[in-house]
Amino acid sequence: MSSLRAPAWWSTAVRRLLVVPLTVLVAASVTGAATAPAPEAKTATPDRPRYDVSLRSDADGSHWAGHQRVSFRNASDRPLREVYVRLWGNGDDKCGMPGEPSPVKMSHIHGGTADRLSVNCTALRITLPEPLAHGERTTLSFDVSITVPQRNARFGREGAFRFLGNALPVLAVHDAQGWHLDPYVSTGESFYTLASDVRVRIDHPSALKVPATGRTWTTRGGPGRTVTHSVAHQVRDFAWAAGPFRTATDTSPGGVRVKSYWAPNTPAAGVRLNRKDGVAAVDRFSKEFGRYPYGEIDFVMTKDFGGGMEYPGLVILGTTEEGSAVVHEVAHQWWYGIVGNDEYGTPWLDESFAQYANARFYGWDTRDCWSDVYWPSESGAITNSMAYWSTHPGEYHLIYTAGPCALADLERTIGADTMARLLKRYAHDHWYGVSTTADFKKAAQSVTDKDLAPFWKEHRIR
């Protein structure tokens, strides 16, 4: 078999996105999952979730315990009889082993009857006490216990620093396809959530700094402790970190507060570059796609974190002297965060779009990049799901290479000004919503008289 080739413009910063070994991309088996009900209305539900969370950490942020409450509405035209909660933090460890339980546990559940954990302990079915009619709200509450795993990962640790990405349980989505109970993948994302309001209270030792999704502030806690408060509106997830970070705060010319947190051994030149490019990217993308709505964004930087990982209002960045993938991760605030998508089903809608924005920011020459794209088989397509990429790990880079090349070719096909108007209008039309490949193809066709069917076929956008 011929080896895969990456386009020449695929820079060092892009490669950092994929430093986690691709061989770990093996689809997890679904064990004990309940059968999803027949598809209902196209409207995604449960919608308008509101999460209220209170957590307390141990001395070094390795263990967190507290209480979580989530209220939600049934947007479907049929009664909602059950919901699923995703415990994505269990993805790598699955159901654990004797003496090593899963890192995320729920207990004392109120507001419904819990079934057994399924999908390798990443999904919990909760039957509601009575069917929830269209437009009605209800509430679930439960205790949560979180133990940070011994690995350097988005949910993991590096030295004295803890990363808590995808650690909080979140509601699964039901749409025209039924319940989305996809397996967890370590490289790439499985996540599909609806925009939510989140309020979190984090009680921790004062020696720890705690960057988090949302607008944050601190108050005095008990002796030797601090409470970090966070409020976030219309976000798809909540992440935080903890450790003896060094900190700095910048404000972009557009008025966004950019808070930087870094481990002391992080290269100083990389920290400076991340702050400079990150601040510029927030304002640049605000102009191109619509004003950044969250007011604050946190950059969490360490020397040995593998690549970068995006969350609403917070990104984790493995940082060298040359910086990191900060611009790509900032672009994700729009492409996945604001303009949502099913990251398991259509990962190109966030990764390819974020990398296209990254290429434009740095002014990369993409005129001939499509000619450098190598497809090993006819089954390969930019629009493939993580089910495909997990069984073809050597091809996964294509959503970072072929995807942005295709978007750059679309820009040349319809014109730069038209492409700019298309993306800004598309973001506006799907602001806090969910986008699909069909939606984007329809929107693109609406702005040009050229028949784009041959373009989609040539660029494997199916």
From TrEMBL:
Report the coiled-coil segments: none
Q: Which Pfam families does the record cross-reference, listed alphabetically?
A: Peptidase_M1 (PF01433)
The protein's UniProt keywords, in alphabetical order, are: Aminopeptidase, Hydrolase, Protease, Signal
Question: What domain of life does the native source organism fall in?
Answer: Bacteria
Q: Gene3D superfamilies annotated for this entry? A: Neutral Protease Domain 2 (1.10.390.10)
Q: Which residues cross the membrane?
A: none
Q: Tell me a Gene Ontology molecular-function term this record carries.
A: aminopeptidase activity
Q: Which InterPro entries does this UniProt record tie to the protein?
A: Peptidase_M1_aminopeptidases, Peptidase_M1_dom, Peptidase_M4/M1_CTD_sf
Q: Does the keyword Signal apply?
A: yes
Keyword check for Signal, yes or no.
yes
Q: What is this protein called?
A: M1 family metallopeptidase
Species of the source: Streptomyces justiciae
